[in-house]
Every structure is written in C-alpha cells, then in structure tokens.
Design goal:
Elements: E1 2-4, H1 8-12, H2 21-27, H3 29-33, H4 38-41, E2 44-49, E3 53-57, E4 63-68, E5 74-80, E6 83-88, E7 102-107, E8 113-118, E9 124-130, E10 133-138, E11 141-150, E12 156-162, E13 169-175, E14 178-183, E15 191-196, E16 202-207, E17 213-219, E18 222-227, E19 234-239, E20 245-250, E21 257-263, E22 266-269, E23 278-283, E24 289-294, E25 301-307, E26 310-313, E27 324-332, E28 338-344, E29 350-357
Length: 359
C-alpha cells in the first residue's frame, strides 16, 4: 500500500471534484478550494441549534440528531429554518411513542432520515423517519440493529446482531424491504457499515482473520481491507461520490490514532504532524474533510477542516467574540456547512452549532 503526505495533488488535479459543484459554488466554498490562501479567506458564521447531538446534514441544510421530547426522553430530531421537529419513535408495549428513545443518524437530500429506536420489547431497531411515520426495518435475525447512513436511492446501511444473538454483529445494506448481510473479511467475527455513497459503495469496519479490526470499502459487493497506519485497528466513517474514504487508524503501538483519507488504494495520514489522536468523521463530494483532533495529545480536542493538503483548526475560522470552543466536527454538506460540537468558554456548557461559510 502506498502512503502519501497530503491530498493536495488529488484536489488540484480534479480527482475529488464532483459533478455537483454548483451546490458548493453557491456557498462560495469552491473559490476557497482553489485558493492558495484558503485559511486566510475562509470564515464561518455560527448558529446555535436546539439539539443534544447532531450526526448528519443534507444539501438543503437539514440537520438531524437528538433532543429531549416533552417527556424528557431523547428523540430523533431534525432542525431546519429555525425549527426543531421531533421525529418520533416506535411505540412501547402500551402503544406509547413518547417514552421510547430514538436517534437520527443521517438524512439524504430527499429528507429520508435513518437511525434507531427502541421498540415494544425495548430492543433497539434500525428505523426510517419520514414525515410523522417511523418504520421498523427489522434485523438480521438478532435482537438489535441500527442504521448509520442512507443514499439518494434509499439504500440504507448499518449494523445488526446476527441470529445467534451471541454478541456477533454484521454490517448490512437494506433496500426496498430486503436485508443483505455484508459479512466479514474472513467469515468470522463482527463488522459494521458506517457510510454509503450515491453509487452504492459502502464503508465501515470488520474483524480480520487475525483478530484485528480494519476499515473496509466494498468493491463488486465484497469487503476490501483498507488497512491501517501501522497499528491493529482502523475504521472508516464516510465515503463520497468518487469513493474517497475517511476515518481513523492507529499508528504502530496502538497508542495514538490519526485521521486518514483513502483513495484509489492510497491510505493517507492527514494529521501526520500531530502527536495526539484525531479522527476524520465526514467528507463531502468536493473532498473537504471534517473531524476532531487532540492537538499535542494534551486532552484538549478541536474541530478541524481539511482541504488543500492542510488541516485547519475550525476555531481559527470563527469570530472569537462568540466565546465558543469547537471540539468536534461531525458532518459536512456539499454547500460547505459544518455541524460541530462546542463548549461555551464561560460556563463549560455543551452546544451543537452549525457553521456556514461566509466569504
């Protein structure tokens, strides 16, 4: 496997350029992506969201995650146009949906949202949220499942207990009412799927025959080992339309893990200069990556954006007078909007915020 020090040549040569660049151009981010002084030009406005967690954002700017409902239970929630909407949950044994927890993990551009909900037996099942309807997708035969991502065709990926209910879990893809078990590298152990792109390419992680856990990408329907950065563990968190994959991988010794990008067989440490740990959580179709880094390994985390071969602390790209510290970037859309976890400097309170490019 070939290692590279940056993605600069891939970005400039167009390998990460999607056909849908109009969405990015509308946000002004395209001009940043071809600028040699991106960090100086790129700034973000910040909007605080009434959510407890946020996991996904689509091109229209709908953010999905969780928030407390009127009963004080965490429910899947979406935020759009200054309005938070409770997406509901599966009913409990009495038919009540208010007391069952649920979570939204991802949303496609048509608004189809996926995640999980407790059911009447208080097992967790993968579900879809559409309007006021919550649909139980079921499992691979075991007790629990969870959906992690959905593409524009409505293909959904995630993880499920197997029928043995012995702790083994397998990655799955669900489409039009049918589950496909993606299995593992060797046929033993567990796996999970975390992302799917518009072409149906799936990424995640799987146990290996030697007991390690490695990130995978599907090729012709089969799991392909992405490898690691020298350690024994890696995981893929997202994939864009061109098949560029992001995630994290441990370095030799398994004490520190770094954010990676993988494209056309090349695994790249995008945080190679850092002595702390980091993770790439999402990538948009322009190839812009967001995640979290522990700069210097001192326990203080920062949200980052990576483009033009440079990892930038998002805290340097917002107004410091806001009094916020961005600690993790969880999602990015093709307009360059970024969802972040943040701390209020004066109180230490946790907030979810939405960053929008303003150039």
């Amino acid at each position: 496997m070939t290692y590279k020090s940056s993605l600069y040549s891939e970005v400039r040569s167009g390998l990460f350029m999607p056909s849908r660049i109009a969405a990015i151009a509308c946000a002004g981010l395209l001009s940043v992506a071809v600028s040699n002084s991106a960090d100086a030009a790129l700034k973000f406005t910040v909007t605080t969201l009434p959510l407890d967690s946020a996991n996904g954002i689509n091109i229209p700017g709908v953010v999905v995650g969780t928030a407390l409902d009127a009963s004080g239970v965490e429910h899947a929630t979406k935020f759009y146009h200054n309005t938070a909407t409770d997406l509901g949950a599966l009913p409990d044994s009495t038919g009540n949906t208010a007391d069952n927890p649920s979570q939204a993990a991802a949303i496609n551009n048509s608004g189809l949202t996926v995640g999980l909900s407790a059911n009447a037996a208080f097992n967790l099942h993968a579900v879809t949220f559409s309007g006021s309807k919550v649909t139980d997708l079921g499992t691979l035969g075991g007790n629990n499942s969870s959906a992690a991502a959905v593409n524009e065709a409505g293909k959904i990926v995630g993880v499920s207990d197997t029928a043995a209910n012995d702790g083994t879990q397998h990655a799955f893809v669900w489409y039009k009412g049918h589950f496909t078990d993606l299995g593992t590298f060797s046929g033993t152990g567990s796996s999970q799927a975390t992302g799917i792109n518009a072409l149906g390419v799936i990424v995640g992680q799987s146990d290996t025959a030697t007991g390690e856990t490695h990130a995978f990408i599907t090729k012709q329907g089969k799991l392909t080992d992405i490898g690691t950065l020298g350690g024994t563990v890696s995981s893929a968190n997202g994939v864009n339309v061109l098949g560029a994959v992001v995630g994290f991988a441990f370095l030799p010794g398994d004490q520190v893990f770094h954010a990676f990008a993988y494209f056309n067989g090349h695994l790249i440490d995008i945080d190679a200069k850092d002595t702390g740990s980091s993770s790439a959580n999402a990538i948009n179709d322009l190839g812009i990556i967001v995640g979290q880094t522990n700069i210097g390994g001192n326990g203080n985390t920062s949200a980052f954006v990576y483009l033009l071969g440079k990892l930038m602390d998002l805290n340097t790209l917002i107004n410091p007078a806001l009094g916020l510290t961005l600690i993790n970037a969880t999602a990015i859309n093709d307009r360059g909007q970024i969802v972040c976890d943040a701390l209020v400097n004066s109180t230490g309170a946790f907030e979810i915020v939405l960053l929008t490019p303003s150039l």
